[in-house]
Amino acid sequence: MTEKAGRVIHLDDVRPINYGGGEETRILLRAEDTGGAYSFYEVFMPPGEGSLYHVHEAMDETFYVIEGEFEIKIDQEIHKAPAGTLVYGPRGVAHSFFCVSERPGKMLCTTTPGGIEVFFEELSALLASDTRPAWEDLRRLGERHGIVAHPPQGGPHGGPPADPR
Fold this sequence. Notes:
The chain has helices at residues 116-127, 135-144, and strands at residues 17-18, 24-29, 39-45, 54-56, 60-67, 69-74, 77-82, 86-89, 95-99, 105-112, 147-149. A 6-stranded antiparallel sheet has the order 1-2-3-10-5-8, with helices on one face. A 3-stranded antiparallel sheet has the order 7-6-9, with no helix packed on it. The protein has a two-stranded antiparallel sheet with strand order 4-11. The chain has 165 residues and is mostly beta strands. Mean pLDDT is 89; it is low at 161-165.
């Protein structure tokens, strides 16, 4: 059930969640704001940065590029995504994104159901230490949130090699 009271949120009033490397996420609507239906957030990504190749087991994710250009990999296909492009990543399908423009990129994203913000907050805390976390710690964090992350394997999108079938 969605919250009955409306909300007005100004981007400048939302504290960004940082991941190192200049990446930021600003959660505009948290799960508790939408009765758990979805989370809505802005992602700021410097050139040459991106996500690991990963799968949300029980969450759909939608990316709408508003600035810059991204490559968004859905399953084994890489899609060019300049500003004005929407890409849908259904639950259970591996995906990643990577900012390929010379300037930073921005996307507006939703996840359904909501709740991804807790993962982002915990990831930020894990990455805030002076030493790089062990891969196993990152994997376990994702697992707690229904995310299966594939270890980097070269190239901007990393992940496992394409299935030879």
